[in-house]
Amino acid sequence: MDFKYDVIVVGGGHAGCEAAAAAANLGSKVLLITMDMGRFAQMSCNPAIGGIAKGQIVREIDALGGYTGIITDKSSIQFRMLNRSKGPAMWSPRAQCDRMVFSSEWRSQLEQTKNVSFWQDSVVQLIFQDNIIKGVRTANNVEFLSEAVILTTGTFLNGLMHIGSVTSEGGRVSEPASKGLSEQLFDRGFTVGRMKTGTPVRIDERSINFDKCEEQKGDSDNYHFSYLPQPDNGLKKRSCYITYTNPDVHKKLEEGLDESPMYNGTIQSIGPRYCPSIETKIVTFAEKERHQLFLEPEGETTIEYYLNGFSSSLPLQTQIDALKLVPGLENVKVFRPGYAIEYDFFEPTQLYHTLETKAVSNLYFAGQINGTTGYEEAAAQGLMAGINAHQKINQKEEFVLRRDEAYIGVLIDDLVTKGVDEPYRMFTSRAEFRILLRQDDADTRLTPKSFKIGLAGEERMIHLNQKIELRDSVIQFLKDYSVKPKFLNDWLESKGTSPLKQGVKLVDILMRPQISISDLLDGVVSFKEFSETIPDNRRNEILEAAEIILKYSGYINREKILADKFKRLENLNILNKFDYDSIKSLSTEARQKLTKIQPETIGQASRISGVSPSDINVLLVLMGR
Fold it and tell me: What does the pLDDT look like over 204-219, one tens digit per residue?
């Protein structure tokens, strides 16, 4: 039994699992400490991975060599590509998962990962030597030492759950809260805050009348999250169902607002703006007569359903009475009510972009401890913290992604530069360069970077190089192959586009907005024959990648030019170069914010709220720029 490790990861949620795997795969000897080894990467809220911007993050995690995408593919019971009616920058993959399989697959993956050890316990104290982390002490009074510690405590730090007037301590239903760490870090000067999140009621499938609901099936296309070849997982695919609230439901909910912890003053902390409780919805959007609800199966065979859109901390009876007024739920039976949970977090401006804390060397924070919400955001932070903890203790270069390189870069830069005043959730609108950050090309953006540091394996690079070669061959074929009017005009008119007057290259046909690359497969025999030279399991991926590059090349090139300008500011390092309080030509707010955050570059400084363009010009002048 070892008690000395390179990296200790505290918490076995989505962030902790990715952190442990990343550090271990890079070569560090890792100890993962969790309260319950039966709940790795537990889906505490909805049983799904991905969605708007979140799906892009998961594909980036996979491209870097993380496991969330692979585990999702192994546990998926429905896959959908959201926003297909919009441009490819907005396409977002989402998978409904069997949450029990998801957790068990994560455990299996970690157990097969060389260099990962486990300890089931609760960490109650951190061990410091001056301002350097040296290890942890657990509730069972066991001391483990390490070169680095990554805290991924989720909602467990002083967690407090609310169902109406009933409160209980815990980080999740039936799981105890974590005590001691917040107080210890507060005493060392860390800024600690409180946040709130919630989860909906779980429903017995046998009590649902699906005839009154709208069925929502998954896509028939064979999409996966992972860029590596993934066989079908063999799980039965299941539909979700849609229903709606109504004025009677809202009236019943309003009758219980006095007993809602959010409205009677019991809960003072801030909840997620973009995933509000049902009671918040009926107050904030009082003019709306209905709100959409999704009935989502929790697994392949289970009768447990998650009611997405009905997060609540109202009393149990109020929740049940309101649910009985929802179409399809007239005879509802619940497994457990929705509840709200309050927990401690640490202001993320106290971190470097590596997710190492500024106050304590080799101590890293990842996940909800940084004020974020969502499995995907947590997993991304865990991956980056795991990478950087390994790099730091081995005196290797830090691994940081820029805002034009990845949504993960946007996420972390937003956290450490702007901080949070509510649970942070990623959206495509947060990215200035979202045409460059598409879900289809995360591998081309990130796998070479990860391969360079030794995380992404050779198999990924071979797979990526094959993809690029096949994609470019499709592009070249479209540019070289000529078509004549007499063979295509009838087909073109059937597609609602004008006939040809002379022969053109096939790429010119594809560039028409009415024509997609899948249309060409139907209308041009030679192209269909060429496409069949591409392996079946990669054909859709390759054709889609080629089409996006051709059709959106103008937009992509324009964003690359803007990103290059942006990089110039990112390359101007200013860390520890200024005593901001002494620069009187800066505004008072700028002096305060710059002193507090200590930005690493001019680019980061320019994104701090309260730092104006004129303040940035002052800094540039002082640098001789």
Answer: 999 999 999 999 999 9
Helices (H), 48-98: 54-64, 68-75
Residue 520's identity, in one-letter code, is L
Q: Is 70 exposed, middle or buried (0-12, 13-18, 19+ CB in 10 A)?
A: buried
Tell me the mean pLDDT in the region 107-114.
97
pLDDT surpassing 90 at residue 567 = no
Query: 231 near 76, Cβ under 8 Å?
Result: no
CA distance 424 to 190: 19
Say what the pLDDT of residue 1 is.
84
3-class state of residue 610 by DSSP: coil
- Fold exhibited by the domain 458-556: Arc Repressor Mutant, subunit A (1.10.10)
Q: What is the pLDDT of residues 242-298, one digit of tens each?
A: 999 999 999 999 999 999 887 788 888 878 887 889 999 999 899 999 999 999 999
Concatenated DSSP letters for 289-346?
Answer: S--EEEEEESSSS--EEEEEEEE--S-HHHHHHHHTTSTT-TT--EEE--EEEEEEEE
Domain range annotation of the chain = 4-154+190-196+345-452, 198-338, 458-556, 572-622
- Residue type at position 315: P
Q: Tell which phi-psi region holds residue 530, choosing left (phi > 0), alpha (psi between -120 and 50) or beta.
A: alpha
> Does 98 or 197 have the greater pLDDT score?
98
Average pLDDT score, the chain: 94
Supply 245's token pair: 């609230």
What top-level class would CATH report for the domain 4-154+190-196+345-452?
alpha beta
Q: Distance between CA 63 and CA 57 in Å, rounded? A: 10
